[in-house]
Amino acid sequence: MNKITVKRFDGQKKYESSYxxxxxxxxxxxxxxxxxxxxxNLDPTLNFVAHCRSAICGSCAVRVNGxxxxxxxxxxxxxFQSYETTTLTLEPLANFPVISDLVVDWDQALEHLARIHxxxxxxxxHSPKSGxxxxxxELNVVLSAWDCILCGIxxxxxxxxxxxxxxxxxxxxxxxxxxxxxxxxxxxxxVSCKAAVENGLWRCLHCQICMHVCPKGINVxxxxxxxxxxILSKKSPSDIHPExxxxxxAEKKE
Length: 254
Ligand code: FES
Prior knowledge:
The protein is an alpha+beta fold. It folds into 2 domains: 2-104, Beta-grasp domain (Ubiquitin-like (UB roll), Roll), CATH 3.10.20.30; 107-240, Alpha-helical ferredoxin (Fumarate Reductase Iron-sulfur Protein, Chain B, domain 2). The chain has 12 helices and 7 strands. It has helices spanning 23-26, 31-42, 76-82, 107-115, 136-146, 153-157, 159-163, 171-182, 190-198, 209-213, 220-233, 237-240; strands spanning 2-9, 14-21, 61-64, 67-70, 87-91, 98-100, 103-104. Strands 2-1-5-3-4 form a 5-stranded mixed beta sheet. A two-stranded antiparallel sheet has the order 6-7. Helix 5 (136-146) packs antiparallel against helix 8 (171-182) and helix 8 packs across helix 11. The longest helix has 14 residues, at 220-233. The structure holds FE2/S2 (inorganic) cluster (FES). FE2/S2 (inorganic) cluster (FES) binds next to loops. FE2/S2 (inorganic) cluster (FES) binds at residues 50-53, 55-60, 70, 72.
């Protein structure tokens, strides 16, 4: 028999619940579908979050045997096989306040994201009619960072953030600082870069766990290196990524 143990919290006390599941029950199920089975058939009090069920919204991230995964994108049989065990332990993401069971509070993380100003400052000369045009090459520079679904997995596994949260941010915040810095439509690209420095850019330990655990394959560690190069060189983003150039409304689209 397979067993899933969930480390739980009811708002006041911590405790554990274990659920026994036959091979037949878990066959072909994702971890999320297994949690839904438990809630519908074994324990209606178990709390977890999920929305898209398609690895898009990022809401279903949980830790399995200490490692964060997207529950909707992870087959539960594969977990039992890869850990060579009949018991899995589920916990909420680390480094987030826990609301209940596997549900965590994102308020603080979103406030941290806001600190790096992840927005694009439009060029003054761009009118609503001309828009803020971007070539395919320029878009390609930042496209990988747009894949971030804010699942919180990198924050849960980050070595530096786990060690000290007082002077550092969740890795995804640095990914978004890089994105806005390198976006060709940004008239003031160093705003996010400087905010990243003020919020711990140089404190990254470069363990690179963030890029290994990211379900979208985003290389946050490389982005952090990019931002550091930019600061040290005192150059502009287009010196680091030649594809980026300042675009004026009068120019023709490529
Ligand atoms: S439910 Fe949306 S990412 Fe898993």
